[in-house]
Amino acid sequence: MRRKDMLGLRDVSAEEIVEILDTAARFRSVSERRIKKVPTLRGRTVVTAFFEDSTRTRLSFDLAAKRLSADTLGFSASSSSTKKGETLMDTARNLDAMKPDAIIIRHAHAGAPHMLAQAFPWTVLNAGDGINEHPSQALLDMLTMRDHLGELAGRTVAIVGDVYHSRVARSNIYGLTRMGARVVVAGPGTMCRQDMAHLGVEVRHRVDDVLGDADVVMMLRIQRERLAPGMMASAREYSRFYGLDLDKLRRARPEVLVMHPGPINRGVELSPEVADGDRSVILEQVTNGVAVRMALLYLLLGGEPLPAGADDAAA
Amino acid sequence: MPLPDAGLVLRGGRVLCPASGTDQVLDLRIVDGRVVERGAHLEAGDARVIDCAGRAVLPGFVDLVADLADPGATWREDLRTGSQGAAAGGFTTVLASPATEPVIDSGAVAAGAVQATRGLPGARVLRAGAVSLGLKGQELAEMGTMLEEGCVALSDGGLAMGDAAVLRNALEYARPFGAPVLLRPALPSLETRGCMHEGKVSLEIGLRGIPAASEEVGLELILALVRLTGSRVHCSHLTTARSVALLRQAQDEGLPVTGSAPARSLLLTDAWVRDHGYDPAGRLLPPLRPEADRLALLAAVRDGVIGLCSDHQPWTRVDKELEYERATPGATGLETAFSAALTALDGDLPAVVSALSVAPAAVLGRLARLAEGDVADLVVVDPDATWTVGPPRWSRSDNEPLRGRSLRGRVHLTLVDGCPVVEG
Predict the structure, then answer these.
(1) Are strands A45-50 and A102-107 parallel, antiparallel or unpaired?
(2) Rounded distance, CA A314 to CA A28, Å?
(3) Of B382, B213, B238, which is closest to residue B301 (Cα–Cα)?
(4) Which of A40, B104, B210, B331 gives a 20 to 30 Å CA spacing to A165?
(5) DSSP readout, A158-186?
(6) CB-hemisphere CA count at 13 Å for A62?
(7) CATH code of residue A237
């Protein structure tokens, strides 16, 4: 892969997406072994810089780097110098002085990873910037869909919830449309405005409006921290029109996949019966997350060729 | 170098002065700060001769919307660097924003602020007093006293006034004093979380937007209040197609309203933010707008509906070397406005003179004219020279979204009160 950074899927080609997903599929076997480690990134230093809270994504990236034998270290906002008033650029200059190979950054402001990628020689992986993108999440979502559906082209993916404020949605929209899938979005008018159509998606509103022909229903988390006052009436009403329960799910295709980037607000966007039900692939998404992040680190950092064992174990 | 008693002769330039109906190659003789003679082949005698062949001689540019940060934030800009930067950009008069520290909102502060503008090395700096106390949009400032202390206009300093009743009172109160009121139309509550134009690009790159409706509703409110009160208002920072359509309509109706757009808005669109990877230099308020708005602004300038301003807002790395969403909005403009305008208007010098000299001067009740007897505030430009925008020549701040861009039109010489303040 000939790029230094992974900032978002907006400018990533279908060929690159296929390369990442194929590589991730091969890496999955590493996590199935007793010794879950390959030496491809031995001696390389990967920093996880999380300026915003995260459990899943941070652990997943950390594990991915460790399974590739990279040295990892990280910090999160609560323990970082940003609380002492240091700017992002100054923090980055200090990191740079310690000669890292890659930085995985999550930040509350869109464009923060782009700023670092522009200014420094090391690889930058965007682990979520503001309401902009979260490319590794969309890639793991696409890997999960591909596992079940085969080709993504021609499939219909419904994304439901606070689409406007969702970096997961934005990355999925870019990735899926590039792969030839049809994307339909739904949610309250405040979170799913008419102009979302500019992104190449169809805009609907109620969850009922998208269930009929969807191969995948991706439910988004209500992110109260990103909502300005007055964007939502009540959790009860939200759940009524935009949440998914067993009753509504009956109107979907029997083989529909239910996805969620987590963490789930149980009873708001997803009823527990659906979240834990047989159409849910939510935990597969998490497993695939490690593999996709291994693939990204491997491809961006140009690791040693994959050892034969990586494929053997998959067989 | 001191001027000889016999003054200056500007030799052989294309003198372009719409107010005196002049567009021809002429010599100008300037003595004691005034144009004293115009004609072909003037006798030089002991006067200093400046060759203007192939160049254009224009009435000096006048800026209504510049933040010179002095007093209070002189690490960003001060009166000297602001005055010199303005002159380097061909401006001979600049109206400084009252958004200083302290805010120019009382007679006492105004007196000191006006005093400080004497003897500057470049463009003449005039002062605007605040419309509201502390620019907070709640209580009225001492408009009358500030005008008596030497302020020449009243302004909200680019901070839109949100309360319609306060705005109405401010216009009623200002009217008998006769000074123009400068306002940036916007509805603050529609702007609060946005950091670029709300549209296709903001959606694409995940930045919260400021809808054009914010500016347009703000403008409709101002126009309705002008109709109600009869006050003279200049609407600065117009950036949308609908804004200029509204202004055009209001002018046709006979309302005493004028408007201006930032010169850079004739050249840059909201795609800049995407194409420059969230570079905070492009974070502006009002924001860069889409192509259709840019084209409407160009047409409005050509038709004389609006003038242009520098919208000079100097911010240093402390304010700008941040995540795009956290960076302070604003960009420098005094050194680039003329060339941006000439480039966007495809070399149409008469349109540039109307927009940068005649229209803004008229708002201040001044005359941008180069007839015999007029004050020699003028600029000599090379209209065909191109240059690439580099670091600022004078400004203390380096936040210029036109950086690296090749522009048409260079300032060769600026005279303020007949004295060369920029040469070469």
Answers:
(1) parallel
(2) 7
(3) B238
(4) B331
(5) EEES--TT-HHHHHHHHHHHHTT-EEEEE
(6) 13
(7) 3.40.50.1370
Please tell me whether residues A19 and A122 are part of one structural domain: yes
Question: CA of B193: which chain A residue's CA is closest?
Answer: A228
A131: closest chain B residue by CA = B206
- Tabulate helix, strand, coil % of chain B (nearest 5): 30, 25, 45
CB contact under 8 A, A196 and B205: no
Q: Are B95 and B364 within 8 A, CB to CB?
A: yes
* Known catalytic membership, residue B311: yes
CB B233 within 8 A of CB B174: no
Neighbours of A149 (CB within 10 A): 18
Which residues of chain B from 179 to 198 reach within 8 Å of chain A, CB to CB?
193
Give me the interface pTM, i.e. the ipTM.
0.90
* pLDDT tens digits for range B112-157: 999 999 999 999 999 999 999 999 999 999 999 999 999 999 999 8
Distances (CA, A) of A72 to A124, A136, A139, B308: 14, 18, 22, 54
Q: Please identify which residue in the block is written with the tokens 């988390």.
A: A221
Cross-strand partners of B95: B126
Closest chain A residue by Cα to residue B200: A198
Burial class (CB in 10 A: 0-12, 13-18, 19+), B405: middle
Burial of residue B217 (number of CB atoms within 10 Å: 0-12, 13-18, 19+): middle
The total number of structural domains that make up chain A: 2
Q: What is the DSSP letter of A307?
A: P
- pLDDT of chain A along its 315 residues, tens only? 889 999 999 999 999 999 999 999 999 999 899 999 999 999 999 999 999 988 899 999 999 999 999 999 998 876 566 666 889 999 999 999 999 999 999 999 999 999 999 999 999 999 999 999 999 999 999 999 999 999 999 999 999 999 999 999 999 999 999 999 999 999 999 999 999 999 999 999 999 999 999 999 999 998 777 777 788 888 899 999 999 999 999 999 999 999 999 999 999 999 999 999 999 999 999 999 999 999 999 999 986 566 555 544 433
Cis peptide before A113 (omega within 30 of 0): no
Q: Please count the other Cβ atoms lying within 10 Å of the Cβ belonging to residue B184.
A: 23
**A139, A273: one domain:** yes
Residue A2 in any domain: the answer is: no
Q: Is residue A143 part of a domain?
A: yes
A10 touches chain B (CB under 8 A): yes
Assess contact for B110 and B150: CB atoms under 8 A: yes
Residues A90 and A146 in one domain: no
Question: A290 lies in a domain?
Answer: yes
What stretch of H or E contains A274? helix A272-275
CB–CB of B205 and A198 under 8 A? Answer: no
Global model pTM greater than 0.90? yes
Q: Which domains does chain B have, with CATH numbers?
A: 60-369+384-405 (3.20.20.140)
Same domain membership, residue A191 and residue A164: yes
Tell me the C-alpha distance between A243 and A150, whole Å.
Answer: 27
Interface test with A, best of B270, B318, B325 (most A CBs within 10 A): B325
Domain that holds residue A42: 14-134+286-306
Chain B interface includes A244 (CB < 8 A): no
On chain B, the residues whose CB falls within 8 A of the CB of A197 are none
- Report how far residue A14's alpha carbon sits from residue A84's, in angstroms, rounded to the nearest whole number: 42
Closest CB from B208, B277, B322 relative to A87 = B322
Q: Which residues of A touch B193 (CB under 8 A)?
A: 228
Whether residue A267 is found in the same domain as residue A290? no
Please, which residues have CB within 8 angstroms of residue A254's CB and are 6 or more apart in sequence?
none
Helix (H, G, I), strand (E, B) or coil at B413: strand
